User: What shape does this take?
Amino acid sequence: MTSQKPPEADASSTEAKRMPQGQETWRQLVELLPDGVAIHRQGKLRFLNKSARKILGIAEDAEIGELPVMQFVHPDYRHTVAEGIQRLLETGERKPFSEEKFVRLDGTEIDVEVAGFPFIENGEIAVQVVFRDITERKKRVQILREREAWYNRLVNLLPDGVVIHSQGKIRFLNKSALKITGITSADEVIGQSALKFVHPDYRQVAAERIQRLLATGKSTPFIEEKFIRPDGSEFDVEVAAFPFTERGETAVQVVFRDITARKQAEQTLQQHAHRLELLSEIDRASLTAQPMEEIARSALVSLRELIPCQRASVALFESPPSISTTVIAVETS
Assistant: This one.
């Protein structure tokens, strides 16, 4: 008779046969990961996948032997990492990703994100570590921060007001924008409507321009509008805007300048030009062969445009100055 094995023995035998296959599947999967995967036990490295070797500068065919884990941890982080490993082994809890510094085999330093968790291997507690090189990412972030700081310094030197808004809310104002609008601090308006400064008579037009700008992605040239300060005073401005992407969101940068003084100067020049034209008309009328009364009436009409009044008159005198004889007087009310 053939003896039969107990069910427990069959189960153990089946599990024993499955383990190598399971380990091989795990290894194949791990070797495909872009992140580095390392296993260490009792402070010594036991396994590194291809990505881990590449990140740490270890050749794929190099023996890792009994390399100490701390050899690849930057000296500034070794104490913290040692405490973290000890806590992980004592509690059995996973360690979430955090930023650290590693040292490659050639001595170069790299920034990494690291996570880990404990598990049982051959009856002993081991730690599996997953890490990724974030050196280039941190450099890009640093470059972006430096550019942002440079941009802020530049924008705050501009004489024009600059406002950035996204999703209809104000996100940034430069110093000139604060000065022009009479606002003490940007905190007073951050998060408020992008149309806060726009005069009520122009808000519909401004809203349509913003909508069109966002839909087309094209900048809008300078046009004249009216803005209003918190104290209610109105002022004339020239405004232009263009869309851009900020942290994955579409935002709008608005550039504006106060043209109130310029508009007043233009109005004064127009008034002076009009007065000169009226005086020129009087001069031309005096040179024509018209009766003196007609010349006087024409001059009176022009003079009343120059000097608004309820009653005016024109008197003509003969020379020499010693003889002041009135020739004609024309009055109107």
Helices lie at 7-32, 50-56, 78-91, 135-157, 175-181, 203-216, 260-287, 292-306. The chain has three domains: 26-133, 159-258, 263-332.
